[in-house]
Amino acid sequence: MLAAVEADGTILTAGAGHSLAAVAETFYRAGGLACVRPIYHPELLPMHGAISSTAAERRSGLASEVLREAGLAPHDVLFVFSTSGVNYYPVELALEAANAGCPVVAVTSVAASAQAPRRAGSTLAEVATVVLDNLVPPGDSTYPEQAPVTAAISTLATTFLWNLLMVRLVDKATETGVQLPLWRSANVEGGDAANADLLRHYQTRIPQLG
């Protein structure tokens, strides 16, 4: 991540279904990186159709379409959020990015992947450059402990991991003297002015900032 920032690259973040909550956490958030570009397709969002979003994640070829639209440039990094990590969309995102020479960070559950159907032939963890295990149990639910049926934990665990990364990134940037492009809250005095330069710099390559 630090290398991408230093080289003026872009950190792309992707997911499907409820993993899109993690993508939202990475984008245009107070204290977050301005060089983050979320990549997704409307069909992957449950609010646009719950059943169709599951079907879209399991369809081969959608990842290629989404990546082609986003584009991968030198010094970019791709984060793929997928707790199960077995459907075509996350696996093919990682494979295509890796084949293009782009490092891929998988935020996934190794335990959940081990028990889920291998729909794409391999798992996100198997094809990523770096794996961050969110330790979410198979099935996601955590309560009651002996026979869990509710209290899904994947969104909390994944966003917690992302924010731990941000903390470590700030520490490493401070150690090496790198200035991170961090958003300020628009609801504090001076926030809009502080963000203006970041918007001018990144808006042409991150259309979602428009």
From TrEMBL:
<dbReference type="InterPro" id="IPR001347">
    <property type="entry name" value="SIS_dom"/>
</dbReference>
<dbReference type="InterPro" id="IPR046348">
    <property type="entry name" value="SIS_dom_sf"/>
</dbReference>
<dbReference type="Pfam" id="PF13580">
    <property type="entry name" value="SIS_2"/>
</dbReference>
<protein>
    <submittedName>
        <fullName>SIS domain-containing protein</fullName>
    </submittedName>
</protein>
<feature type="domain" description="SIS">
    <location>
        <begin position="1"/>
        <end position="175"/>
    </location>
</feature>
